[in-house]
Design a protein that fits this description.
The chain is an alpha+beta fold. The protein has a single domain, classed as 2-Layer Sandwich (HIT family, subunit A). The protein is built from 6 helices and 14 strands. Strands 3-4-6-5-10-11-9-8-7 form a 9-stranded antiparallel sheet, sandwiched between helices. Strand 12 and strand 13 form a beta hairpin. 40% of the residues are buried.
Length: 346
């Protein structure tokens, strides 16, 4: 690095060791005027039960099944599943047009009966129940499928089809592309360096300028290679490869840090912060050496609750690009109150 280089002023590229992809960092673009789209955003009004919601307790779902009067987390098979346990194989492929059978299971996790309570707004006990569901569902489905993808799409901006706070689990008989990339990268790092890639990341980032929140077991950072403006990576500070491998105390501390991180997201622009998040762990039934469990949070907001980052143009045709540095993003997330804005006196 030359003496003249300043990361918060000069364009540069950063490499993501988990995917092998790059991101173009262009901090000088942060001051450009914005005349583009302004999105609608959450006003903070809470409806605790919506009679028209197909995820609320006691209500009829779109496919005709009635939900029980569930008191906590509620898991059910997705009525419109993207994968099915049994499906016929496609016709034989040739070298150009290749298709293969894909089977699996898809489930929905309603976080609580409260239609208006997102993860940071749940009681500590209710949040812990969500983490227990993540872990237990992963263990159950992992006994049958090599890949179990736990994820949440939060908010209309991220394509969420129902506002009732919920997540999903898609288990597949194949290892999807993103997980396969990370599997190869972590195995490759171990072979080349004799170290676990994300263990090294956690050790080097703890207490640093990209840390957002941390406790004894977990660390949330804006990764050095982040593509989305306020993207974060949630890492364990201990050796674990899958959600199913977490012990009781580690699940409890995970619940605490998930709420701490998502509270800071909401407080940044005082809105219910949209994102897509998901867990990556070692594929089931195979060698987990080199693996470290982790969660990605990909939020689209850029300048305010109404201005989002669009991954278009150069991002779609060339590579990811960002206008604020990961260090600046982490500093802004650290600076907000740890108390949710809806709970602070006005």
């Amino acid at each position: 690095m030359s003496d003249d280089f300043q990361a918060d002023r000069h364009p540069h590229r950063r490499r993501d060791p988990l995917s092998g992809r790059h991101v173009l960092v262009s901090p000088q673009r942060g001051q450009r005027p914005w005349l583009g789209a302004n999105e609608a955003f959450d006003t903070g009004a809470a409806v605790h039960h919506d009679p028209a919601c197909y995820l609320c307790p006691g209500n009829l779902r779109a496919a005709g099944t009635r939900n029980p009067e569930y008191p906590g987390t509620f898991v059910f098979d997705n009525d419109f599943s993207a994968v099915m346990p049994e499906t016929p194989a496609p016709p034989a492929a040739d070298r150009l047009f290749v298709a293969e059978r894909a089977t699996g299971a898809a489930r929905v996790i309603c976080f609580s009966p409260d239609h208006g309570a997102t993860l940071p707004e749940l009681s500590p006990e209710a949040a812990r129940a969500v983490i227990e569901a993540w872990c237990d569902q992963s263990a159950e489905l992992g006994a049958r499928y090599p890949s179990v993808q736990v994820f949440e799409n939060k908010g209309e901006m991220m394509g969420c089809s129902n506002p009732h706070p919920h997540g999903q689990i898609w288990a597949t008989d194949f290892v999807p592309d993103e997980l396969a990339r990370e599997d190869a990268a972590q195995r490759g790092w171990l072979a080349a360096h004799g170290e676990v890639l994300l263990a090294e990341v956690a050790e080097r980032e703890a207490g640093g300028e990209r840390e957002v929140v941390a406790n004894a077991d977990w660390l949330a950072i804006v990764p050095y290679w982040a593509s989305w403006p306020f993207e974060t990576l949630l890492l364990p500070r201990f050796d674990v490869a899958r959600l199913s491998g977490l012990g009781p105390n580690q699940r409890a501390s995970l619940s605490e840090i998930v709420q701490a991180l998502t509270t800071r997201y909401d407080n940044l622009f005082e809105t219910s912060f949209p994102y897509s998040m998901g867990w990556h762990g070692a594929p089931f039934g195979g060698d987990a050496r080199g693996w470290r469990l982790h969660a990605h949070f990909y939020p689209p907001l850029l300048r305010s609750a109404a201005v989002r980052k669009f991954m278009v143009g150069f991002e779609m045709l060339a590579e990811a690009q960002r206008d604020i540095t990961p260090e600046q993003a982490a500093a802004r997330l650290r600076a907000v109150s740890p108390v949710h804005y809806k709970r602070r006196p006005r």
